[in-house]
Target: UDP-2,3-diacylglucosamine hydrolase
Amino acid sequence: MAIRNKLYFASDIHLGALNYTSSREREDRFVRWLDSIKHDANELFLVGDVFDFWFEYKTVVPKGYIRFLGKLAELVDLGIKLYLFKGNHDMWIFDYFVQELGATIISNELVIERQGKKLYIHHGDGLGPGDGKYKILKKVFRSRVCQWLFERLHPNFGVGLANYWSGHSRLANAAADEHKLFENEWLVTFARETLQKQHYDYLIFGHRHIPLVIQLNSQSQYINLGEWIFNSSYAVMADGQIQLLHFEKDHAENT
Ligand SMILES: [Mn+2]
Model:
């Protein structure tokens, strides 16, 4: 039996996105990854936008993703601790995964100490300067009133509308990305500002879909987990060091 002592991080799998075939291929790939880490993972952090859209009605959840959910259940039953972050696409995760998977749901940031290192983890939406429109939208979308109203729409209509919106916002984000250089990343700016107030060894985000490691100062690194539509990137922490890797590609990316 291998020792379970590693922490694994992944985000932005966007299950459900593009179309059924694309989503199933990604789901199968992600399940293979989960299978490959189950022997030495101690904790698993899914850092938001796991689903391209998710909503839990009082007694009903969206169809699909059974292989993924089954594999997660297997890992949890092996004793692996699961953290599920809300992203901007799947902020409507409530207590289904708490009940079924014993997951810890993280609404905003998670600050933890592991292996002698201090970690700050956040999906990455609505942080840093700018993006005022989204920050307002996030407040509205996360409000109980808005959720209550959405729950009253028939799912054939409500989920259809949400999927349209989700595709639209993914495309809009992709277009905005092309105009930004890595060093000018707002999340990097946010990370630098956060470090002025408080020391962290690792600041870990998703959301930007760009797998990236930036050395912020002699002790602190910014890590973006990338995404699973094109990259299959993830991070692993062992012996106090975090590496950003690509699943099923023979090269490893470390900076
Ligand atoms: Mn996102």
Q: What stands out?
A: The CA atoms of residues 232 and 247 lie 5 Å apart. The two ends are 31 Å apart (CA to CA).
